[in-house]
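Entry for the shared binder. Reason: the reviewer on the internal report wants the predicted structure included alongside the sequence.
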Amino acid sequence: MTAVLFQKLCRRIALVESPVRRLRKLALRLRGARIGRGTQLPRTLVTWPHQIQLGRDCVLQPDIFFNYSHYWKPGPSMIFGDRVFIGRGCEFNIRERLEVGDDCLIASGCTFVDTNHGRDHGSSMNAQPLESAAITLGRNVWLGAQCVVLKGVHIGDGAIIGAGSVLTKSVPAGEMWAGVPARRIQAFTTTASTHVT
């Protein structure tokens, strides 16, 4: 019993926001980032902090890359709702827009890319025209580890995406998709779109 209490105490201490994390949040806020109350912000890489908006009580793990891959413009272009979880090593390559609803779970290693190179055979790959379209995740969406979400994809409320999936098409609310490219595996009769406390 004493060992369990000690472990719980150690976990509580680990969750207390360190002075380094507070300074990191302050530095990003001074550069334009909007970070909600209670959001945990570990070591991340952000190209344009004013393009980030994180809601309240979000949990982020280390080594996340927020890459706004275009010239300077007013932001934010990457908008995350409240109570969003983002796993270790996720990458957001956004040129147009990304919106993530409340209570979403984004597992480790997921990649979001809202831009695609064109296919002009007369030009080099570096000179291809770019095609961009916004990505949106509804409320209460769960993405398994190592998912790739490509331009123009909308994932509806309560959807579940299997680990390692590549999403090239939009996913209706309350469905489970998986595969490369991802396709529907199951539809749920009800979707839970409320946060349980």
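Summary line for the report: Residues 34 and 132 are 24 Å apart (CA to CA).
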